[in-house]
TrEMBL record:
Keywords: Dioxygenase, Iron, Metal-binding, Oxidoreductase, Repeat. This is 4-hydroxyphenylpyruvate dioxygenase. It is an enzyme of class 1 (oxidoreductase). Its EC number is 1.13.11.27. Residues 12-142, 167-321 form the VOC domain. The lineage of its organism: Bacteria, Candidatus Eiseniibacteriota. It comes from the Bacteria. Its cofactor is Fe cation. The gene is hppD. Pfam families: Glyoxalase, Glyoxalase_5. It comes from Eiseniibacteriota bacterium. SUPFAM superfamilies: Glyoxalase/Bleomycin resistance protein/Dihydroxybiphenyl dioxygenase (SSF54593).
Length: 364
């Protein structure tokens, strides 16, 4: 087993960058359906020749959508392989050079060395290391940078109108069969993250398919990365379906935290976000499973919100359908009332719903 190192001083997720086939249209998708404000643009008009990027924000959540303008760029090659999806989970640090040097010393593959990115608002320092699949972690040092955006972006002011989504709760990676422990060890040996929770295939299985998951967390618990791998079942695991369509490991879902999931889901449904279907029967036994909760069960049933409880409290959650035609990346909306778990009690109900979708695609 790999060594567990002292934690690297990574503070939080700064932003998530997606490579997409058409960033102009994707930006409007996240603005109109998820209610993000479109706050920045970078591209040929701002001196960047080979790609265009849009910066979206809601609460503390920042997404960058980037599209290549030429067929032979790195972004174009990655989109060709994987379709639209997460490229960079950018982590905020105080000293990019130090964190980068230590991560590389501990065995993380380098993507690029520390470099300064400058505009009229000042300078930021960035470096990047490779993680699972074609995904990277850039290390973002903001010290001294005054602008509200990222260097090179010019401001846009197109409101999205949703304020219910506040921050990123966790980001889940799907990795190949047998690789979960390697990647869990990567996060403990490179970043010094702890194994927060482990789920085995007995926790997360239905009659047909199963997965295993290890949740790796930073010392301050602001960064939580569950790592999933497929487990054998009677039929194909949904993780295996992801791996096949994504052509390898990658980000499966980004969980967005809210303080008011009822209003959040009400709003997102009205805007046209599609969520996984939950059978009405799920609500018949809900009180038995989770006990007393503050929310009105009838309201939860109408909005199809899931609930799970552990010894510390409960959580409410719901998952979107994949946001691309490939069955790959999706989003989760989550509200925590004490519970620090990930909805283990919902996995079975949820899996059966995912399998119905998988079966409709002919992939079960
Ligand atoms: Fe999740």
């Amino acid at each position: 087993m790999g060594e567990v190192n002292t934690p690297l001083p990574v503070k939080d997720i700064d932003h998530v960058e997606f490579f997409v086939g058409n960033a102009k249209q994707a930006a409007e998708y996240y603005r109109l359906l998820f209610g993000f404000d479109l706050i920045g643009y970078a591209g040929p008009e701002t001196g960047i020749r080979d790609q265009a990027s849009y910066l979206l924000q809601q609460g503390h959540i920042r997404f960058v959508l980037t599209t290549p303008l030429t067929p032979d760029s790195e972004a174009a090659r990655k989109i060709h392989q994987h379709g639209d999806g997460v490229y960079d989970i950018a982590l905020r640090v105080d000293d990019a050079e130090k964190v980068y040097a230590e991560a590389v010393r501990r065995g993380a593959p380098s993507v690029y060395e520390p470099r300064e990115v400058r505009d009229a608002e000042g300078a930021m320092k960035k470096a990047a290391i490779q993680t699972y699949g074609d995904t990277i972690h850039s290390l973002v040092e903001k010290n001294g940078y005054e602008g509200p955006l990222l260097p090179g972006f010019r401001p846009l002011d197109k409101k999205g109108g949703n304020q219910f989504l506040k921050a990123i709760d966790h980001i889940v990676g799907n990795v190949e069969d047998g690789k979960m422990n390697n990647w869990a060890e990567f996060y403990s040996s490179v970043f010094g993250f702890d194994n927060f929770i482990t789920f085995d295939d007995k926790d997360i299985s239905t009659e047909y398919s199963a997965l295993r998951s290890k949740v790796m967390a930073s010392e301050n618990k602001r960064i939580k990365f569950p790592i999933n791998e497929p487990a054998p079942g009677k039929k194909k695991s949904q993780i295996q379906e992801y791996i096949e369509f994504n052509r390898g490991a990658g980000v499966q879902h980004v969980a967005l935290i809210t303080g008011d999931i009822i209003s959040a889901i009400h709003d997102l449904r009205a805007r046209g976000v599609e969520f996984l279907e939950v059978p009405d029967t799920y609500y018949e036994t809900l009180t038995e499973r989770v006990g007393e909760i503050k929310e009105d069960i009838e309201e939860l049933r109408k909005l199809k919100i899931l609930v799970d409880r552990d010894e510390d409290g409960y959580l409410l959650q719901l998952f979107t359908k994949p946001v691309e035609d490939r069955p790959t990346l999706f989003f989760e909306v989550i509200q925590r009332r004490g519970c620090q778990g990930f909805g283990k009690g919902n996995f079975k109900a949820l899996f059966e719903s995912i399998e119905r979708e998988q079966s409709r695609r002919g992939n079960l």
